[in-house]
Amino acid sequence: MQLLPELNAFLEANPDVNQFDVILVDLNGILRGKRLDRNAITKLYKSGILMPRSTFASDIEGDTTDGTGLGIRTGDIDCPCLPVANSLKIVPWAHEPSAQVLAYMVDEDGEALRYTSHGVLQNVIDKFKELKLKPIIAPELEFFLLDRQRDEDGRPLPPISPVTGARDKNTQVYGIAELDDYAAFLRDVKAAAVAQNIPADTAIAEYAPGQFEINLHHSDDLIQACNHAIELKRLIKAVALQHDFDATFMPKPFADLSGNGFHMHISLYDEAGNNVFANGEDLGNDTLRHAIGGLSATMEEGMLLAAPGANSYRRFSPECYTPLHPSWGFNNRTVAMRIPAGPDAAKRVECRVAGADANPYIYLASLLSGIYLGITQQLEPGPVTQVNAYKEFEPTLPLTWDAAIQSFEEAKLLPQVLGSEFCHVFLQIKLAERQKFHEFITMQEYDWYLRHA
């Protein structure tokens, strides 16, 4: 009921909107929900609408994972869903006047369920409130534009430049000409972001043809920042279709090109508004060192949360700016935890492991869990890296899906903060997905073994 004025103001300002998408973000970061008409949307704001609890047992294909205990074994019960504040927005790319609103699933006390995307992050945020500390984050997301046509084997192709008419083949990181070629697309992304009040700013051409990165402003409203990341992904895909492209956040769509990453900048402030990482030195103070120590200590356990799918692990290779070891350093892009150069008041750590397929709520929750444990237990990181981390360290992170699943299954630190209920549900989904994945026989296997075995 407390958000009803927000709805009433929206309805008054948008009398032509008759279609509302109510969106839940499942544990894979996939958008699920219901489409309501104007007469039905008020119910969401007055009392909530019901959705199956098994929504959060969905695997990547949308099938319910029975091992979670959220599906048919326990009756596949419905739970109420409530609107997320400030997420009711126009959908500017829709063919008819439409709106969208994010929602979260709650228990009988109206609290977000701890094993849901919103719930697990809120649980970690509450830990920092106890420390009287406020995290501030800034997400960066990479994606590819693709030709809507596939090659003869069904594989994706880089886009055809709207300016030259030729298929993109060159890698021009930070290239201005590449931004010019796709200026119309980027302009419409910006316009849609403004219409949806998504604070996206910097766009850069990345390390592969048709690859871009868009950054979100730093924010101390962590739930809202993750909402914006989810909304931005939907927006980019929709605007790409309007320009006759596909957009993908798949971590590694091309074997011979760089992958799509998801970097997260994190700083911490006290109640007086002081950056508690800053002390005038490049490497920051003890608090920052302990935060990085916690990130390092939990990185192996949390790899599955940063790289949740089979394709995620194709990103990781030497010299590709994808960390292979929990290294850290100042102004060094070869490390997993980078302290960027800049003013002391903006002292922060950039976490560089995740792929763009990571659920932002869950990935952020895992990072903050590491920082929380590092600060409260005064954990120490390894030696600071001043050179190429790929040359200095042997890989120690789990670099296959199987290894990451095992590391998460055996985790001791992260469940202390994320909660055993969330860890159980997430693990069961990934175990089920792995089983499905290994049941497929690839064309490569037929090519290699059908005749010669």
Automatic annotation (TrEMBL):
Pfam families: Gln-synt_C (PF00120). Residues 18-110 form the GS beta-grasp domain. It comes from the Bacteria. Keywords: ATP-binding, Ligase, Nucleotide-binding. Residues 117-453 form the GS catalytic domain. One of its GO terms (biological process) is glutamine biosynthetic process. GO terms for molecular function: ATP binding; glutamine synthetase activity. Belongs to the glutamine synthetase family. This is Glutamate--putrescine ligase. It comes from Umboniibacter marinipuniceus. The lineage of its organism: Bacteria, Pseudomonadati, Pseudomonadota, Gammaproteobacteria, Cellvibrionales.
